[in-house]
Amino acid sequence: MSCHLVAHFEKRFATGITINIDFCQQTDVFKVTALLGPSGCGKTTLLRCLAGLTDPDKGIIEFGDETWFSADRKIALSPQQRDIGFLFQEYALFPHLNVADNIEFGIRHLSGTRRHARLTEMLKHFDLTGLNRRWPHELSGGQQQRVALARALARRPKLLLLDEPLSSLDTVLREQLRTELRRLLAELETPVIVVTHDRVEAIALADRVAMMDAGTIQQVGSVQEVFMRPKNPALARLVGVETIAFGEILEIKDGLATVLVGQTHLLAVAPSESVRSVHVCIRGEDVALQRGMHGASSVRNHLPAKITSLTPEGALVRVGLDCGFELTSLITRPSCEELKLRVGDTITAMLKAPAIHLIPSESAPVCRTMG
Prior knowledge:
The protein has 371 residues and is of the alpha+beta class. The protein folds into two domains: 4-228, P-loop containing nucleotide triphosphate hydrolases (Rossmann fold, 3-Layer(aba) Sandwich), CATH 3.40.50; 241-366, CATH 2.40.50.100. 24% of the residues lie in helices and 36% in strands. The strands form four sheets. A six-stranded mixed sheet has the order 7-8-9-3-10-11, with helices on both faces. Strands 12, 13, 14, 15, 21 and 22 form a six-stranded antiparallel sheet that branches. Strands 2-1-4-5-6 form a five-stranded antiparallel sheet, covered by helices on one side. Strand 4 and strand 5 (66-70) form a beta hairpin.
């Protein structure tokens, strides 16, 4: 028996936009897959097609041995027939129903005893005990989210689909609920696909990330793999890589590549492909700063740099550097204060070779830093 959700389909829109999907997820184990990408790239369209709320123009969607959609065979199962749970961005609680009735809405086919037992279980699991007679407008944003999740999961769906589940909450509450949401999902062990454009949310919730851009899934892998080793510069920008610069490999020795970036030589782990032109990707948190000359260190790259900008960003400071090419460092405020950094100062930027990700390139775009 197959234990995978498989989706190969195309959806065309009157605007001329076409969504081409090639997606697969294991379904017999708990796993959260985040669909990450910019607005308008097709994330919600993919989710709605999986749910049966929108039909593709061609292709297939299969769950295990079940065919949910087939354009050729003219099969298009309803959301109820697919047995999925769907949490909308706005939660879509019924305002005329209290908490208990909202949760029971999808399990009205169960006997009274079983329905009551399932309701009690959901109230306890989602920390809603005592709130069963409250109306949606009497609940906090976090409580509304938990009611919506309880309603979606009370049916014991085969698959749970979440569309931007935290986007309607304020920043403070969103940060508080990320960890809680992951815990709640893990305890119920239902496979999950969540749409988000928030990198932090994807990291907090997901085991696996599917990067979408321009209507296609361009990279799928673990959170670590996708965020640390994006396949192309566009994906590197989407996952928040601060510095993306053009470089030329001068030589490779002992697994390390000497790369000329602007006027500077860097040592990086050599790419597996035999290439000369590369995009050099460097995350800001991997760039350490220190005053003066370096002592004994295992760090391969010590770059004299001039500070061009200091931009506070919450608990961090974004430090713009000129080290023969534009480089960004992200450091904590205490570190910035301890180093007494000022615009115009000369500093040493330190960067380990494995922290530099090289993406093969046949083109030669201008050197740039993502700010």
